[in-house]
Design brief:
Layout lengths: L2 H9 L2 H25 L5 H28 L1
Helix pairs in contact: 2-3
Length: 72
């Protein structure tokens, strides 16, 4: 992953990251439904979405731990 993409994610607020993760999860749900109902497959896009969600969750957790450490 390019550093510019990581920097763009780090520049976003927690609410923006959560909203982006929700959108990606919704897209994955629609993709699973279309695969089941229509036989369409998205292939590599699903993998990319899963990884992007994992990146977002990692950043959110890092921020959570940093805030907890700062509070102590």
């Amino acid at each position: 992953m390019k550093k510019s993409v990581k920097q763009a994610l780090r520049a976003k607020t927690a609410d923006e990251l959560k909203a982006e993760a929700d959108v990606l999860q919704g897209d994955m749900l629609r993709a699973r439904l279309s695969t089941t109902l229509e036989g369409k497959r998205l292939g590599i896009k699903t993998r990319g979405s899963r990884r992007q969600i994992a990146r977002i969750n990692t950043l959110l957790r890092e921020r959570e731990l940093a805030a907890a450490k700062k509070a102590n």
